[in-house]
């Protein structure tokens, strides 16, 4: 077990240093900030000596006074330069790490996101780079502290060997105390961050769903749950405050011990004539430096431990394999040569340990409309994901014509598909932005307008004051469900795809919206290879082919009429839809 733990630690350090040297950090600025910090420290180390001489009655020595003034000015100037470079390196470091991670996150395979927490993924690109930046900044601080520590002891040793040696035993004590305080401070701070993440996740999930909460009258229950996560956050904050409460006097006690040694033993040495009072004052100033410098080691160690964990998480993304866009064949070459039938050949697929599809075989004919039908959880949406090549089969293969899909350029393949779903997700931006999203070539205003007209969206778009430049809000929140779906259809018209995937595209709509969308879809589907998931009998009855899946297995295929004759499960599903339609008609 110890060997495993040690190997894990070495792995963590390896990832930390790899990230430091592979993220194009502003090392020039870091080096300049370290050099200027060293120069500042050198100047600062000279101030107690000058102070000592002034305390000896040389205050009227103009040369000495000017030396003190110039040292103070030089220290302030060099400190400002060091601080400037230290401050600008932080944002640059975070930016460079984020610019390294974000493209990776976009290009990672979908399997990397399956089952992952979106807030955790967000923290990889927002919070974790700050931990790495803090560690590198604290490294500069530690190097400066080490230089200051050595310089202080060298100067004190030159003043008085006995008093200097008397201070040495206190150094390990300061290190131990700072390490203990740093450990508990870091631990409670981590707890605060964890609870804050939970609090953020709670509000991020609830606030966009406020309509759902009100609709089902769950306000009181959500208030109670909100109070619980708020109290959890408060509890973590209270623990941190308690640690700070004990840490503050403990650190002051360390300072008091150090100062006490200087003053008590220094007084003894003064009484013996082995030390001047002015030298005791200089020692007092130097032990302040030493105390602060040693404390920085504890801060640095905790900072590095945080950064090591963050670096492992960031490296997990940075080192992940990207989707390979360039493949053996272009889409157009295969399309023109072998045709556009899509075939599932003995395909099996699963997420982690859960199997979703088992050895299914079917063909989606070019230029025809195919409906994927089955009970909830039977694998219909997974089939769509495999058609879009968001995932690759675990077993078997998907073909276009007689060419394996994995041999066709991935970006070309996805550009050939338009997906219209029930949820019709939109991104923040204007209506124009969302209609043209994903389209490679330049699109004229007239083409956008024509697509909106074909999608029965032009009327409501022009009703807005800003027309196509209207902001849709977060996830399209300023639009109705029907309006969002019509924009998705307009986008599909703009893309002019070879394949059209419709996922419950007309469900949960009012009668007028459903009529408008059905009318637009008929135009869009004309002459295209269309695959739909639908429970609507009107849609299913008009398709060229029905594919029935049940519990991840192919349960039958054929026309609607053929399936009604030979499949009990299919008839059962149709009966359920008929009953729902009758109940709905009775309420109208």
Shape: elongated
Give the rounded overall mean pLDDT.
82
The gyration radius over C-alpha positions equals 35 Å
Instruction: Detail the poorly predicted runs.
Output: 1-8
For this structure, the quaternary state is single chain
Number of domains: 2
| Physical arrangement of strands within the biggest beta sheet | 6-7-8-3-9-10
Instruction: Please name the CATH architecture of the largest domain.
Output: Up-down Bundle
> If helices are DSSP runs of H or I spanning 4 or more residues, what is the number of helices?
21
Q: Could you say which structural class the secondary elements and strand pairing correspond to?
A: alpha/beta
Helix content: 55-70%
Largest sheet: number of strands, sense, barrel closure: 6 strands, mixed
What is the fourth-level CATH superfamily of the largest domain? ABC transporter type 1, transmembrane domain
């Amino acid at each position: 077990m110890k060997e495993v733990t040690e190997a894990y630690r070495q792995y963590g350090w390896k990832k930390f240093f790899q990230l430091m040297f592979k993220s194009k950090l502003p090392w020039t600025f870091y080096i300049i900030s370290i050099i200027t910090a060293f120069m500042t420290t050198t100047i600062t180390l000279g101030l107690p000596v000058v102070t000592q001489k002034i305390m000896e009655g040389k205050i009227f020595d103009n040369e000495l006074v000017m030396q003190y003034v110039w040292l103070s000015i030089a220290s302030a100037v060099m400190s400002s330069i060091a601080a400037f470079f230290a401050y600008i390196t932080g944002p640059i470091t975070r930016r460079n790490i984020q610019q390294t991670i974000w493209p990776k996150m976009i290009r990672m395979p979908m399997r990397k996101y399956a089952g992952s927490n979106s807030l955790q993924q967000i923290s990889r690109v927002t919070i974790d780079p700050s931990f790495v930046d803090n560690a590198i900044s604290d490294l500069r601080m530690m190097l400066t502290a080490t230089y200051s520590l050595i310089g202080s002891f060298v100067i004190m040793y030159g003043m008085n060997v006995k008093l200097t040696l008397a201070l040495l035993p206190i150094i390990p004590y300061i290190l131990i105390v700072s390490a203990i305080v740093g450990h508990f401070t870091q631990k409670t701070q981590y707890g605060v961050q964890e609870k804050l993440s939970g609090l953020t996740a709670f509000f991020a999930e609830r606030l966009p769903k406020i309509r759902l909460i009100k609709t089902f009258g769950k306000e009181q229950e959500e208030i109670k749950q909100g109070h619980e996560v708020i109290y959890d956050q408060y509890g973590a904050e209270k623990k941190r405050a308690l640690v700070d409460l004990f840490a503050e006097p403990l650190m002051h006690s360390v300072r008091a011990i150090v100062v006490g040694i200087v003053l008590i033993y220094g007084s003894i040495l003064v009484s013996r004539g082995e030390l001047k009072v002015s030298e005791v004052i200089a020692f007092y100033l130097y032990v302040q430096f030493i105390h602060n410098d040693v404390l920085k080691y504890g801060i640095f160690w905790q900072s590095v431990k945080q950064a090591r964990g963050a670096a492992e998480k960031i490296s997990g993304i940075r080192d992940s394999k990207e989707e390979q866009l360039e493949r053996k064949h272009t889409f157009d070459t295969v399309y023109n040569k072998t045709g556009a039938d899509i075939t599932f050949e003995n395909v099996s697929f699963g997420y982690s340990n859960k199997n979703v599809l088992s050895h299914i075989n079917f063909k989606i004919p070019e230029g025809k409309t195919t409906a994927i039908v089955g009970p909830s959880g039977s694998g219909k949406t997974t089939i769509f994901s495999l058609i879009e090549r968001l995932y690759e089969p675990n077993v078997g293969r998907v073909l276009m014509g007689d060419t394996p899909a994995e041999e066709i350029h991935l970006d070309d393949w996805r550009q050939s598909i338009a997906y219209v779903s029930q949820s019709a997700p939109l991104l923040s931006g204007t209506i124009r932005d969302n209609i043209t999203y994903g389209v490679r070539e330049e699109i004229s205003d007239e083409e956008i307008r024509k697509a909106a007209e074909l999608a029965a969206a032009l009327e409501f778009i022009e009703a807005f004051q800003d027309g196509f430049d209207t902001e849709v809000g977060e996830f399209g929140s300023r639009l109705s469900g029907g309006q969002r779906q019509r924009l998705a259809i307009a986008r599909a018209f703009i893309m002019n795809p070879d394949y059209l995937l419709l996922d419950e595209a007309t469900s949960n709509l009012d009668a007028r919206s459903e009529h408008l969308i059905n009318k637009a879809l008929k135009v869009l589907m004309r002459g295209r290879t269309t695959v739909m998931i639908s429970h609507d009998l009107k849609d299913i009855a008009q398709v060229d082919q029905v594919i029935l899946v049940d519990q991840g297995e192919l349960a039958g295929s054929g026309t609607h009429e053929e399936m009604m004759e030979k499949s009990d499960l299919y008839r059962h599903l149709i009966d359920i839809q008929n009953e729902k339609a009758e109940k709905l008609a009775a309420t109208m």
